[in-house]
Write a structure and sequence with these properties.
By secondary structure, the chain is α+β, with helices and mostly antiparallel strands. The chain has 2 helices and 10 strands; from the N terminus they run E-E-E-E-E-H-H-E-E-E-E-E. It is elongated. This is C-type lectin domain-containing protein.
Length: 142
């Protein structure tokens, strides 16, 4: 695009090209995609791995706000890449340390029933986190 003014020609720079594939959203050198398909946590993680990624890791409030607002937009609950380990601590699928959380009131509850335990973490459409049974189905990948 060129803007012409008497005696001067000013060229405007092209907008920066996104480093992400066309159906992804770029944020702080990461690419995010919301896949609106109900899957178990394991199936969702496997689908993300097939695209050379993981379920989303959230390591600061800026990421939390971005995912809750720009990606989910109040559409549905979605799995994130946080899962409870054998000794009870939580770990991100991509190996990032857990130093930020956004648990909902009273969470995590770690409820055990005849179906299993609440070892996987979902983000509600309002941004709060909840531990849930990994066999439950939520929107696929962030």
């Amino acid at each position: 695009m060129t803007i012409k003014q008497t005696g001067w020609i000013i060229s405007t720079p092209s907008p920066p090209k996104s480093p992400c594939p066309a159906d992804y959203i770029s944020w702080y050198q990461n690419c995010y995609k919301l896949v609106e398909k109900a899957e178990t946590w394991d199936a969702a993680q496997k689908a993300c791995e097939q695209e050379k990624g993981n379920l989303a890791s959230i390591d600061m409030s800026y990421d939390q706000a971005f995912i809750a607002g720009a990606v989910l937009q109040g559409k549905a609950d979605a799995w994130i890449g946080l899962r409870r380990q054998v000794l009870g601590s939580y770990a991100w699928t991509d190996g990032w340390p857990v130093f930020f959380t956004q648990w909902g009131p009273g969470e995590p509850t770690n409820i055990k029933d005849e179906v299993g335990e609440e070892n996987c973490v979902e983000m509600y459409d309002d941004g709060r986190w909840n531990d849930n049974n990994c066999l439950w189905t939520a929107v696929l990948c962030l």
